[in-house]
Specification:
It is a single chain. It contains 4 helices and 42 strands. The chain is mainly beta. It has one domain: Maltoporin, Chain A (Beta Barrel). Strand 18 and strand 19 form a beta hairpin. Helix 3 crosses helix 4.
Amino acid sequence: MTVKKSNVKSMLLAGCSVSVIALMTSYSNEATAQDAAQSPGEKLAIEEVIVTSTKRETSIMEVPLAITALTGDFIRDVNLNDIKDIILWTPGITGNSQDSFIDAVSVRGILTNDFGVGGDPSIAFFKNNLYQGRNGVVVSSLYDVERVEALRGPQGFLFGRGAVGGAISVFTKQPELNSTSGYLDLDIGQRNHYVAEGAVNISVNDQFGFRLAGYYSTEDGWVDNIEKPDDPRLLAHEKYSFRATALYQSENVTAVLTLEYEDRKQDGTVYRAIEDSIPFQRLEDLFAPGGLVDTVFGVPTISPPRGDGRDVDQDQGFGGIRDDGEIFNIGFQLDWDLGWANFTSITGYTDHEWIYIEDFDGTNVQINDYLQDQKGDYFQQEFRLTSDTNSRLSWYVGVSFYEENIDAFFSDKENEGLMCIYYFAPYYEAPYYDYNPEEAAYYAMGGSGAYYGAPTYGCQGYYYFDTPGDDPLTGELIETNQAIGKYRGWAGYVNLNYAITDKFDIEVGVRYAKDTKEFSVEAFPITSNLGPFWTLGFLTRPGSEAGGGPLFEKKSWDAFTPSFILRYRPNPNLMLFASAVRGFKPGGFGSFSAEERPGQDELAFGCTGDPSGNPPTQSACDLTNDIAGPDSFEPERVWSYEIGVKGQALGGRIRYDANAFLYKYKDLQLIVAGSGGGTRVDNVGRVTGYGFEGSLQWVISDYVDVRFNAAHTSTELREAQLICPGPDPDACEGDGLSHVPDLSGAAMINFRYPVSGGQIRASAEMYGQTKTSALSASTDPAEVIQAYADLSLRFGYVSDSGWSAWAYVENVTNALYYDGIFAGDGILPGVWFNPSRPRTFGVRITASFGD
């Protein structure tokens, strides 16, 4: 039983974990460091930043939400590559990784680690007010960006789709009327790192203009695969994207049409097994050279991870690793000023194809290779009315609709001999505790005995599809299945704000949403005698036979979610707020499991049933739609409470914000082990979380400004028996969530000095976090990521005539850390994934032209 990005009881599951929160802190709620202060001699007040995620153009210091805004200039200056890189500079959000998955992205510790296609992410990503979707399609390049707004906590009123954990919203640059201009940015660095970004703005007349933007990025990898020394280094990428935007603007009407295409080819996630983890030690007992299993049986031998921490040992059973996608987006937004209100229509369509391959076990033997081949499309429509602001009462109302089609093919490949030998001993009865490698080897090599009453023919006696005389130790176990979904939903919302006095206002909103999902899953025949032993645990009757074909189900979920916000502004330099918000995420279906229909016996795991058991079980093979359907799970719900302060001092030279939060989360959708499938998604427990986030920006003088950000989160998990490892399912009660650093933070200092024709500038930026672990209290001490800090230095010249040149060193100390960690479980060792990019030298040149 396994999972791709999260093996059974691993990641957020094993050790009672539910989420990560590296809380890579924010750049602050303001503009870029270079733009924070005017040129020397001018007023030193920090430039105001306007955001629109609240449906109106509002100063970020007036928004009673935990929100971070990053400008497009800042994104270029610190070399943020794609939409997930925003996480590095946003407090309360973690899970940045060098792949197309967002199942590890969390907000304040909450995420959904389901890597299938039957659920929804906990964090929502938007671009130009359009929802960007799920794994494989959501991650896009950052170029020609106006700004990014990141909001923490449930967001049910600000976007067409609700976001139970939070939202990241990207706004690209729009055409400027009465201006013909553009820019070109070139970035060249080590490992054949080449990035080109540019745009041209053309104004046809005072009502119509368009903007063309393009992006290209490539870099060689930095991870050696010791098992395949002749292969290119891993974590390389090559991607390009184009965007065309047209703007029409009259006195009362603004219309924007955007078309975008992106093609990316990069390596899939790379994993390095943790040699000191308990599961890897057990693997060495059996399969290392000189171990208990003789290699004459055709079983490969395992090697300890070789090389340094940035090297991996991967057999890559599918012939390589890939993360290749094509994404096409079209969006249209119409704003019509009616005088008494503004009418907005937002329409979007997305189409994508994506193929992903990885070697999840991180070893030189074939334990778990994973493939996902996916395609889909997504249509969305939102209508909204927003009142003017000329009275004490302001409001907005809206309705939205979406429809998604998704089709995904999955395949897992394992060595059947390794599987059979490892699980043949009583280990399978009591994981981690009664494992006896000598007994496993004895049975595997033909020793007498019985397992659950089955006669043994060496290892073959443990097979579900027992065929005496066949040699089971030389083949592959390949489990394949297909999941197809058609999802649609609609929502209506109303939000009212009333200014009781000039200093105090109250905001109340309510949203109703209904989601309907039609879902089918089909598990295809398996040639291995082992049967559906690992990922699936079930098979469907082939479609060519009577009653055969996929298992199908249709379900709907709905909810009312209210929001309450109080805002108090005692003076122009200070704002206090408090909020209580209800969050909701609809239920869904597991992509790798089935459940029995009402009135049917419980499904066994695999192709054997036990009619005398309690309760009785039936075979999970040859399933038909009248016996079983796709395994479903119920919605998640959360109440989130927050208090915060935003203010400025010293005539606007200091700006600060701080907020404290408390949430009560229920029924998290997490991967668990169980009958009817090796990789199931179920609702687990309750989580209470609390913490703080804060940032400070200070323009010290004409020449220096600094920023500092910090975050802390504490969590407590209850009713976690489904995911708690070990013999005592109650042992995890009260544990904190795994992957959550106690503290994290970021700091930046900027210097500038005027010279003839421009400025000399320099900056230093650093972010980091304290130690995190893969499990909670009952953990393997080796499965941790140590505390780290990443430092970058930049030095450049900015000309008054519109060009600049920079030299930089990123990760100055060559710090080694990882995007994340997954706990070992059974035959799967604990693994780190995606080692940090090493020290990198580069130069960047930018030239602007036009008005």
